[in-house]
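**Protein of interest**
===
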Amino acid sequence: MLKPASLKNAIFKSVPLLRDNPDMLHMFVDGGTINATLATSLSFENRYTLDIVVTDYTGDLNLLIVPVNVWLREHQPDIMTTEEGKKRGFTYVADINNDDSKDVRMSLQLNERTIVKEAERRLTVTPLDEPPLPVPVHRPMELYVHGELVSQWNE
């Protein structure tokens, strides 16, 4: 699985509070299914829910949602382009704690393709990145909430 680590890295780059307090961020893979066929190849698609849990969060919720949306645009664009993706691809819940902090759980419906090739009685497994978007993606390097610069990062 490539996407959980990639998303975690993107979140740490863009959310200073989590970068400085990595123990606040937890990720879990839930409800995974493997979509394989009886085709000649053993290649398959791995579909799963990635739950991102941020505990004791005191910041603006947008500071969490926007970096995830930026990451999704490149790594799981169907969440933004299909009706099913728009309805169920990115959901969240937030529990408001007694001290005005929040425990936030974001759930993403992700999939990853894996190519399995057989040659000379060997199987070679290659996880694939998402195909590139048709136009170059220019990633933002600053995040403003309520007009205030809250995060800045480099690629």
Observations:
- Strands lie at 25-36, 44-57, 90-96, 102-119, 122-127, 142-145, 148-152.
- The chain has a mean pLDDT of 91.
